[in-house]
Write a structure and sequence with these properties.
- The chain has one domain.
- Helix 6 packs across helix 8.
- The chain starts with 9 loop residues before the first helix and ends with a helix.
- The protein contains 8 helices and no strands.
- The chain is an all-alpha fold and 183 residues long.
């Protein structure tokens, strides 16, 4: 009864996901409204979003949903909100996040910035997965660890700051929507 007459094809769905037909501002307002309608406490939703966003600032590609859900479960936050919060880490933001946490880790003293041999993060993470599956410890210790150690060090303060910013921003949005709803 409420289905579309003409169902959109895959290209249209992908295009609307990347650039919504209703516009980015309206899509953002819609998502914020949907998040505020999750049937849970303000703390649970805000903390869930914060865990998802903060885990996105770590180099654990492919584990963000799992780690965010695990942290949300441990701290009694909303697991669905934590999954939504991981949207902070996406193909547009990952390169910026990785460069930022790597540079911060090097600045903190966890590695050296080797300008002679630039590396590509996408190749690195793919090779790390292969090395884990084949138990190639020499690759992990000689190639991956000198890059991952500064990234892990830089991810800690970035994730903590991201948690607090996301928590209070989400809490403010939910409280303002609740106030509008009550008035």
């Amino acid at each position: 009864m409420f289905n579309r007459r003409i169902k959109p094809d895959l290209i249209t769905i992908l295009r609307n996901f990347i650039w919504p037909k209703m516009g980015l501002k309206r899509a953002l307002k819609y998502w914020l409204h949907q998040i505020s309608r999750i049937p849970d406490s303000t703390y649970a939703i805000s903390a869930g979003m914060a865990f998802g966003a903060s885990i996105s600032f770590t180099p654990f590609v492919g584990l963000h949903f799992v780690l965010a859900g695990l942290l949300a479960w441990v701290f009694r936050a909303n697991i669905i909100a934590s999954a939504i919060g991981t949207i902070v880490g996406n193909p547009w933001t990952f390169p910026l996040i990785w460069i930022w946490i790597y540079q911060l880790g090097v600045w903190m003293g966890f590695g050296t910035l080797d300008q002679e041999q630039p590396f590509q993060f996408s190749n690195l993470f793919g090779n790390i997965l292969t090395a884990f599956l084949t138990f190639d410890t020499t690759y992990l210790m000689k190639v991956a660890w000198p890059v991952l150690s500064p990234m892990l060090a830089g991810a800690v303060p970035t994730s903590i700051m991201g948690w607090f910013v996301t928590y209070f921003l989400t809490r403010f949005v939910i409280k303002s929507v609740e106030r509008k709803r009550l008035s």
